[in-house]
Amino acid sequence: MRAFDTRISPGSETFAQNRMEMLALVERMRTLEARAAAKSEERRPVFDKRGQLSPRERVSALLDPGLPFLELYNMASYLVDDPDPETSVPGASIILGIGCVEGARVMVFADDAGINAGAMTQKSVDKALGAIAIAEKQKLPFIHLVESAGADLMRYTVELWAHGGGMFAGLARLSAAGIPVVTVLHGASTAGGAYQPGLSDYVIGVKGNGMAMLAGAALVQAATGEVSEDADLGGAEMHAAATGLVEYLAEDDAHAIEIAREVVAGFGWGPCAPALAEYAVPLLDANEIAGVVPVDYRKPYDMREVAARIADGSELREFKPRFGAATVCLHARIMGQPVGILGNNGPLDPDGAAKATHFLQAMDQAGTPVVFLNNTTGYMVGAASERAGMIKHGAKMIQAVTNIRVPKISIYTGASFGAGNYGMCGYAFGADFLFTWPNAMTGVMGGQQAAQTMEQVARRAAERKGREVDGAQLAAQGNRIAAHFDGQSDAFYTSGRGLDMGMIDPRETRKVIGFCLQTCLEARARQLSPNSFGVARI
């Protein structure tokens, strides 16, 4: 393969403007992440009084130092429970991600008891279900650092209860699949949450603080009249001696984390994928991506310029470059791993969809992972594309995306609208990993397109009825529709609703993809020892 010949000038005004606008969005993302950390830190005096580590300190102590940690669903719940962008806190009261413990790649799920006592809302449940699904697919031991007030009853919905059961079912499936589940009881795990340690393969309880009980002392007295203490109902010491729920009793949080690391080390789960060949860094600086891509999706750019900044040596080999040219199909390597890259330089036309289908089938045949770089307003409309078979070509592309068996990693880099999102491995299409850039816009269509569509509908309806069109009324309607659609298409809004696995800095795209590829390779190489029911506590 040959190194890509860039046409980008880092010294140009356009590059500088793109970079300034993109980095402003990255700064907004970092500010929101810091808001969650700061909110949790407000509870520091409580943790100190109890002799506890903070939730983030627990995660840091658990992970192998110096190795990457890929945070997941970092924007979850933003603008959901609190619609005010100035005060809304992202993260859904959970610290979540993939990292290494004693050399093994694991899923880390930590309740952030510094935020609303770790109580779970609907997006907390959705985030937990997403974590369990990823752990199951990627064969990752699941480590839960527990301290939670359970469901947030002030925001209770029946859906929260119903969907929450999926967490229990998910833990049961992990254990049955041969994927270990480890729980550390740093604090309370009450009501329905008490079943989570019960569904774990190993439980470590912290003396004095760790608790698991179906009902606390106050509720027991109200329900039955019995007077009791929380420690007698569900303390870690009681469970270690009386119920067998706790395997290992720890003196404090730090000791509990030490035991958890020893438990993981006992699995013998080191890296199991073959070592990758040595690889070259991109010749074109990945940091330049911020200046390559405009934040306004209506401004075109060449997706090959992005691909060249994430590919080893900036080397690309283009597949059918003269056919369906707006659909970009590339052979490349990322951190030594061969990949196919499918990207967009415009709408998906019939030829582009046919090319993509061929390319995806070829990647599946070769066992080559596919990276989807989304920037499309959708499939082409109009008489010419309809007569050229847009429906059938788009449909077979969607079939190929859905059914290929190789790892799929999808990145929203700009627009991802309509069925174009489906054809580019959007939310519903089984991507192993799906991330968004902060400038991305996703939805059924753009706001301006929706407004123009409804204007045409109104004009034709008025014409059929022989009525005059009220221009001012149509303009006001168009503004409302555009704002309604664009507000829901914004990456911060969609990521807050869990419609991706997290928001990333565009400049870190290569690192994120490389980490995800290695995670997928390890999963496919790992042999599990499943059973029919999971590890039961007897």
Please explain how this structure is put together:
The protein contains 20 helices and 16 strands. By secondary structure, the chain is of the alpha/beta class. Strands 1, 10, 11, 12, 13, 14, 15 and 16 form an eight-stranded mixed β-sheet that branches. α13 links the parallel β12 and β13. The longest helix is centred in the first third of the chain and has 29 residues.
Average pLDDT score? 94
Number of strands: 16
Helix tally? 20
Unreliable spans are none
How is this fold's topology laid out?
Blueprint: E1 2-3, H1 13-41, H2 44-50, H3 55-62, E2 70-71, E3 94-101, E4 104-111, H4 122-138, E5 142-148, H5 158-177, E6 181-190, H6 195-198, E7 202-206, E8 211-213, H7 217-224, H8 230-234, H9 236-243, E9 248-250, H10 253-267, H11 289-292, H12 303-307, E10 315-318, E11 327-334, E12 337-344, H13 350-366, E13 370-376, H14 383-387, H15 390-403, E14 408-417, H16 418-423, E15 433-436, E16 441-443, H17 447-465, H18 471-489, H19 491-496, H20 509-525
Which characteristics define this entry?
8-stranded mixed β-sheet; alpha/beta; globular; 538 residues; 16 strands
Overview in brief:
43% of the residues lie in helices and 17% in strands.
